[in-house]
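Today's session is about reading a structure prediction critically. Students often jump straight to the picture, but the first step is always the sequence itself: look for stretches that repeat, for charged clusters, for runs of hydrophobic residues. Only then move on to the predicted structure, which in these notes is written as discrete structure tokens rather than atom positions. Here is the chain we will use throughout the hour.
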Amino acid sequence: MTKRYLRAVAYCMAFGLLTTACEKNTVEPQGPENSSTSTGARVAAAATRDNNLALGNPSGAVASTSFATNYLIDNGMYVLSYNNSLKRPNWVSWHLSTAWKGSAARSSSFITDPLLPSGWYRVTSDDYTGSGFDRGHMCPSDDRDYSSTENKFTFRMSNIVPQAANNNQRGWAALETYCRTLAAAGNELYIISGPAGTGGTGLNGYKTTVKNGVVVPSSTWKVVVILPNGSSDVTRITSSTRVIAINMPNTQTVSTSWSGYRVSVDAIESLTGYNFLSNVSTTVQSAIESRVDNGPIQ
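Below is the predicted structure for this chain, in token form.
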């Protein structure tokens, strides 16, 4: 598809331990990646919190009510494009490393998003009640459990889509867990996920919407870029960087493994019309976006 060269939208917010999106916030007293100690040993780079939209704004979303189907929200925990017509996110983008991780308990309640413009319908948890679909997180709860305050952001309904139980709880959940395993092993990840299409099959059968016009997607997709902890992340992405992309049907037939749903980034761009990784060089994009991941799954 034709590439649109978009510049990343960087909104610097002060929130708890967050620094500006343009800076590194070290949370472990470790040296820079591959730096030498007095004994000549190598020291791994510290895990940091980085710009949730560092790799680019896939749809050119803007924080203006003129963009009601492509409205940009940056709440400091993740960035999303919201579609007021479909009443769900177009995509959600976030950075994952152990700097975001902690032991806070999972929030007990879903909440409306206070950052949606006045006059827009704000989806509630009740809109999903009895629908047969899970309240499916795009940015997972467990990716933001450093504190209870941070965890609550993932329960805003603008981060939620109607997911079939076996989509949400099987392959989708397995990939979320695998991503956190990679982060725990000394990596940082840039993740973008979202819904696509209309109509899915949940516990109560096929539906195109749940209450108040929240549109049920036909599939859910995700793009994951994996790097060792370090700095200048965009410039470190090369043609050999591992990128996982999946597109998973929003049905009850989904497997417990995510590996069979791997596709290329190009395929998800064709599905959605978005331009992923637009801040990466076009040469590197061509190499990594056309490739289907065949790496380990656990």
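Discussion point for the tutorial: Confidence is low (pLDDT under 50) at residues 1-40.
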